[in-house]
C-alpha cells in the first residue's frame, strides 16, 4: 500500500522549507532511497526516477517506461524525459532558468556526469550540502511521527496476540517458523502492510548470532527454551523495529540469566547516552566498552540505529568510534549529533556460540527534554509462556 499523500506532501514541504537555508535554490534528488522517501515509489522504480524541488514547484521525473506508474502527489508535476536529448539532463534546463545554483543530493550521480552537469542544465554552480536530506529523513515530521506511533501500537498488539493467544494454544505442536508465519499473518490482517524486514525468530543455539539463519530447518517449540523475536511492520509509509525475548520453560537457563544481566545494564547505559547534542557514537562506545569489560574483544554489532521512516535502517548509526578520527569533511554516520525528532533503536546484544542470545530492542524518540520510548507499553522483560 503506498504512503499516504499527506505524508509525502509533508516531506516535500519540509524539503522546500529547508532550502531557505541554502539560498532558496532548487535541489535535484537522485539517490534512489531519497527518491523513495519523497515519493513513496517502490524500490524497483526508484533508480529510474528523479525529483526536482524548487521554491515554487516540485517535479517528478522519469521516462516513458514508467508513465503508468507515476505517483499522484498533490502539488507535484510529472515530467517524462528522453524525448529531446539522449543524456536527459539537458531537458531540465527549462525548469532552472531563473537560478544560478543547483543543490544536489550527495549520492546518486556518477562522477563523469557531475563534472558536466552544470553545463547540461544551464547553471553556474553546483552545490552538495552535506547531510541535507539525511537530516530531514532523521528528524520526523508531525504526521510522520503520528503514523509511527500508530505503527508501533499495531506491532505491540501483534506480539501480544502471539504471547497471550497463539503460543498457549500451539506451543506443544508448532515450530518456530510456524510462530513467525502466524505473527506475520496477524500483522497483515490487522493494519500492517507487510514486514519492514524479514522477521528473525530463533531459539537457543540457533540464535547465537545477530542474524540467525532463517533458511535452516524449523525447530519444534516444545524442544526450545529461549526464543528471540526481532520483527517490524510497514504501515502507511513508515515502519517499526523491535526485539523481545520469550522463555518457553519454567526457569531461565543460568547462562541466559547471566547474559540477561549484562544486556540489561548495557541497555540502560545506552539509553542514558542517547541525549540531545551527543554524537551517536557515545551510545555505541558505551555498549562496546561494556563488551570489553565482559572480556569480549570483538563487538557483535552497533548499539542501535535510526529507524521509523520509510526504511527500517536509517541514520544515525549508534556504533562505537574512537575520538579524533578524521572524517575528511564528510560527517560519519556515528558522529551525527542527536536532535529532537530523531527515532533510534537501542539494541545491545549478548551472544554465546552454540548456546543462544539475549537481546532486546526498543524504539526511542529523542525529545527536547530527554527521551520517549515509543514501545513502552510492551515490557522489555522476558515473556514466560
Describe the protein's architecture and organization.
The chain is globular, with a radius of gyration of 23 Å. The strands form six sheets. It has a six-stranded mixed sheet with strand order 4-3-2-1-5-6. With 385 residues, the chain is an alpha+beta fold. It folds into two domains: 5-137, Creatine Amidinohydrolase, Chain A, domain 1 (3-Layer(aba) Sandwich), CATH 3.40.350; 139-384, Creatinase/methionine aminopeptidase superfamily (Creatine Amidinohydrolase, Alpha-Beta Complex). Helix 6 (142-170) crosses helix 7 (176-189). Strand 5, helix 4 (111-121) and strand 6 (125-127) form a beta-alpha-beta unit. The protein has nine helices and 19 strands. The protein has helices at 5-18, 32-39, 43-46, 111-121, 132-138, 142-170, 176-189, 254-273, 280-293; strands at residues 27-29, 49-53, 58-63, 76-81, 101-104, 125-127, 200-203, 226-231, 234-235, 238-239, 242-247, 305-306, 314-317, 343-346, 349-352, 356-359, 362-367, 370-373, 383-384.
Shape-level CATH architecture of the largest domain: Alpha-Beta Complex
Head-to-tail CA distance between termini: 34 Å
**Structural class of the helix and strand makeup?**
alpha+beta
Total number of β-strand segments? 19
Provide the low-confidence segments as ranges. Answer: none
Keywords:
385 residues, alpha+beta, Creatine Amidinohydrolase, Chain A, domain 1, Creatine Amidinohydrolase, six-stranded mixed beta sheet, four-stranded mixed beta sheet, 19 strands, 31% helix, 20% strand
